[in-house]
Request: fold
Amino acid sequence: MKIENIKTLGDLKKAGYKSKSIKDELRDNLIEKIKNKETTFEGVHGYENTVIPELERAILSRHNINLLGLRGQAKTRLARLMLNLLDENIPLVEGSEINDDPLQPISRFAIELIKEKGDDTPITWLHRSDRFAEKLATPDVTVADLIGDVDPIKAANLKLSYADDRVIHYGMIPRANRCIFVINELPDLQARIQVALFNILQEGDIQIRGFKLRLNLDMQFVFTANPEDYTNRGSIVTPLKDRIGSQILTHYPTDIETAKLITEQEANLDKTQSEAIQVPELAKDLLEQIVFEARESEYIDAKSGVSARLSITAYQNLLSTAELRSLKSGDENTMVRLSDFLGIIPAITGKVELVYEGEQEGAAQVAFKLIGEAVQSLFPEFFPEIEKLKKQEDESPYDDIVSWFFNNRDGFELLDDLRDKEYKALLDAVTPLDDLLAEYQPNLAKEESYFIKEFVLWGLVQYKQLSKYRFTEGIQFKDPYGSFISGI
Reply:
């Protein structure tokens, strides 16, 4: 019999349906996926050999789970993906506030309805997409929000005492019976509220205003927490930690390739934008390297973390910067330039917590430094490393480029709003750049060569072979001593 045809408890029994706890659902469906060599957590990159195996072990063990990690580490995404491990539909007693299982009812409403109507008890079906509840823990969350409270209006209307369970107004947790329930930032929950979760996790009863109700809720709890919350804003009380089966540590991507996968997957670009704007592979690498630099920066609070959302929003800003430039200049298509990276500064400044030294520098200046440091880190992967201390007579592959700037004392300006044709002509005028690329990047596509040329100039600035000045309309490059000679 098809699910849509099962409308009563009697039909459900005839169909041979057997009740199963949510943890058994997750376990059985995970086993099935693993046997079939299916991906268990689709779209999560970088956790294949670390977090995901630990999460799978926790599910197989039927544990409640605490995902512990810094912001932007896909903790909530993992919890949401657990929905795919649930049965597609489950039956419940129609009209039940707490998703009563028709074969194992727990609320007075469902028990009395089944007693009255027997096999004619109406049932309905709940799809797995509706079996997810989430609450962000904040200091103002109350026991009434999560568990419930006595409803005096209901008591008056039904002419019942406050000691009767029928006067209870259920909170979010009972209403999420037979569902995955996520509490984000658990340490932010006041200790007295955390204490209220003890019995639900272990004994299966709830307590409201001294009224104890045996309510064997069937829940899969997933908690998330930032490790620094243990000392900064609060802590997970020890008895609650003891009742959470598995604590799993999440982490940021460990390599640029994984980080790029995440960024491209989550960027959600406009179709016309992605078609009209080309992005060199080096630009994508550079964007991710900026985030890696931020996580190591002395100006940024590492304990707070640098979210993966930084690279996602920065990528969106990068393409929007190139798009805005092309719209103003009239170019139908364009390629991202390194100078476009200045457009991602607003995406950086809003997503990093600065330490005292960073506050002194200023958020925008720190972001600008991160771009330069990322260029410096990637530079040796494409061109010979520049030694900081070398003898004056030693030759360098970059001597001709530095000489070109020395002989052009007026400097070299790349304006932000240059049309592609003008931009390319300016870079082509620095002829030693072509010689450098011909020797060290001979297989480079013509279109991508312009990004690399600008990358070389930024790299030489980082290694103090050239100087760079930012002004309102663009960037000026000079030889490192030009300002002294010209008297600027």
Notes: The chain has 23 helices and 16 strands. The radius of gyration is 30 Å.
